[in-house]
Design a protein that fits this description.
Shape: globular
Number of strands: 6
Order of helices and strands: HHHHEEEEHEHEHH
CATH topology: Nucleotidyltransferase, domain 5
CATH architecture: 2-Layer Sandwich
Strand content: 5-15%
Radius of gyration: 19 Å
Structural class: alpha/beta
Helix content: 25-40%
């Protein structure tokens, strides 16, 4: 008997887009897989969107241990990042953009950690004990690189790791926008080490109250998208790599829903 659908479930069209990106087993040996990849993904997206614990998955999904096994496996073998990259390229093409970005926006979001084990730090500026999510996004707000580290790591130090990783992946990237927290020596470091331009978008010192900053609003909107996934409102994970995988998975869910609105998508 087919279960009743949850709002987070993949539709037939969404599943058709994402199915070719799921890695297939290298060997047919062993027991036959009992649960479909589609249902496993549905369960993962349910955890992300509702914020429930793995052990509290509704019983009409596959067993939580099975679901978590695949989430962890795809974190370890890089599947989440690969699917994120593939869907981002498809969505950029659907919007008439080059699949590879030439400009990006950099920023962080500090979130509280819970009582689980794992690294953490104190962000004196935000007065939060927890971790920082360091994101690099394209001009559509789609994630290029996600890095999670203790909140006491300075933005300029975390940026070097994020941008160094991006340099290995994105050949067309030339321009990065960031806020005043990245000013100073990092601008020269980016120019000398990476051959890119780091442009600092500064707030008007005479402006009062809330101010929408050029380019900066793009990544702020991305953070807004992510916190709609309640599992990301705080960091519940022992490993920073797990939180990174959660971020990529949430973005995958967002992108596949958007891609399904287009009449034809070449996979």
């Amino acid at each position: 008997m087919k279960r009743e659908a949850y709002p987070t479930d993949l539709t037939d069209k969404q599943w058709k887009i994402i199915e070719p990106l799921i890695p297939k087993p290298k060997s047919r040996r062993g027991r036959k897989r009992k649960h479909s990849y589609r249902e496993i993904l549905n369960a993962i997206f349910y955890v992300l969107r509702t914020g429930c614990a793995w052990r509290m998955l509704p019983h009409d999904f596959p067993p939580w241990k099975t679901v978590y096994h695949y989430f962890r496996l795809w974190r370890i073998n890089g599947t989440w990042e690969k699917i994120n990259s593939a869907l981002r390229k498809l969505l950029r093409k659907a919007k008439g953009r080059n699949p590879e970005p030439s400009a990006a926006v950099l920023d962080t979001q500090t979130v509280k950690t819970t009582d689980v084990k794992g690294v953490r730090g104190y962000d004196a500026a935000k007065k939060i004990k927890g971790r920082k999510r360091h994101l690099l996004v394209d001009t559509l707000g789609l994630i290029l690189v996600a890095l999670v580290h203790p909140a006491d790591v300075q933005d300029r130090d975390g940026a070097k790791e994020v941008l160094s990783k991006a340099k290995e992946i994105y050949q067309r990237l030339r321009l990065i926008w960031a806020d005043g927290g990245y000013s100073g020596q990092l601008v020269e470091w980016v120019k000398e080490k990476l051959g890119w331009v780091l442009e600092i978008v500064k707030r008007d010192p005479e402006a009062e109250g809330f101010q929408v900053l050029p380019r900066r609003w793009v990544i702020e909107r991305t953070f807004g998208w992510l916190v709609k996934y309640r599992r990301l409102r705080a960091d519940y994970e022992v490993l920073t790599e797990t939180d990174e995988a959660m971020i990529y998975a949430a973005m995958i869910h967002l992108m596949v829903r958007r891609l399904s609105r287009y009449s034809t998508i070449a996979t």
